[in-house]
Amino acid sequence: MDLPSSRPVHLHARATDLKRAHRRQFLHLAAGAAALPLAPHVALAQAAWPARPVRVVVGFAAGGPNDILARLLGQWLSERLGQPFIIENKPGASGNIATELVARSAPDGYTLQTVSPTNAINATLFERLNFDFARDITPVATIFRGPFVVTINPTVPARTVPEFLAYAKANPGKINYASVGNGSPAHLSCELLKMMTGIDMVHVPYRGGAPAITDAIAGQVQLYFVPTVAAIEYIRGGQLRALAVTTLERAEAFPDLPSIGEFVPGFQASIWFGIGAPRNTPADIVGLLNKEINAGLMNPKIKEQLVALGGTALTGSPAEFRQLIADETAKWAKVIKFAGIKPV
Question: pTM for this one?
Fold first, then answer.
């Protein structure tokens, strides 16, 4: 008697289970379908750069040109990209401590460094480094180029580059020239002048620009290749005599000063700065940084500040920056080997 009524109950239970299964399947598929349009956005959100602060490592103490330019561009990039660009000073070993730190950092765009002629010089000057600058640092963007001003103590009987060269040739070994240290850009620039002209001068290295310029004014050294911004006050005051600038072009700060190259064909030396990143930093991050830095260099306020530092904006692509580094490395390698320069 109970058998006929048990079958409908069984069929009803089975139908209920099927409905639940279909419902679960529907909800699963619906959830999957709903997630599909969001998946690309989730991937983009995870890949968005920068998503946190970026550090810019400077291999020299605060207050120098590397540091000033890093802070100037860091503020611009922070405003443009929406994340802080934090300047981290890591001085020591002619900038090699900072470069090694960056070379060993993750190539994720969150560690950058300032790059200067010192990096190109160090590649030859130091026989053993724990990194290969050309291999381990990716050029991102150039920022700035400026000249040295060729200054002499007013007691030197010369008012032009040809007169100075004639005096130096007539007095071999009697002219002392200052630099901010062995292997520094100013040191090698003077050695390049010696190599190209055959004059004989004595190098006197100092621990910084302040004591070097003090002794140049006092006459303890007769020649000093000094950065433009540091020279203006003393040239205008008559404490130093300016003969020329070292770039191929005349400097905006000293439009009446000729270039050394006008008298010594092919001579050129400059101070330049840029931004680098660890090897294998994604190309899209390098490209974005390059684009934004170049945009900043076209900003009138930033251009004005670069002129105040004694130079001009140096825009360009990562490939052009790589070529500049290669050219500078090869150029200063010849000078280092010719003069037998060793790190101290």
Answer: 0.83
- What order do you get walking across the sheet with 241-245 strand by strand? 201-205, 175-179, 223-227, 148-152, 241-245
Of 262, 295, 328, which closes a domain?
262
For position 344, what pLDDT does the model report? 79
Q: Is 283 domain-assigned?
A: yes
- Residue-level pLDDT at 47: 57
Residues 160 and 171 in one domain: yes
Assigned domain for 222 exists = yes
Written as one string, the DSSP assignment of 296-320 is HHTSHHHHHHHHHTTSEE----HHH
Q: What is the largest CA-CA distance in the chain?
A: 135
**1 in a domain, yes or no?**
no
Peptide bond into 50 cis (omega under 30): yes
**Residue 242 bridge partners (DSSP):** 151
Concatenate the DSSP letters of all residues of 180-244 into one string. SSTT-HHHHHHHHHHHHH---EEEEE-SSHHHHHHHHHHTSSSEEEEEHHHHHHHHHTTSSEEEE
Give strand pairing partners of 157.
none
Of 262, 288, 316, the last residue of a domain is: 262
Q: Average pLDDT across each block of 10 residues of the chain; the chain has 344 residues. List them in order.
A: 38 39 37 34 54 97 91 97 97 96 98 97 95 97 96 97 98 96 96 98 94 96 94 94 95 92 96 97 98 97 92 96 98 97 89
Q: Tell me which residue has tokens 């400026």.
A: 146
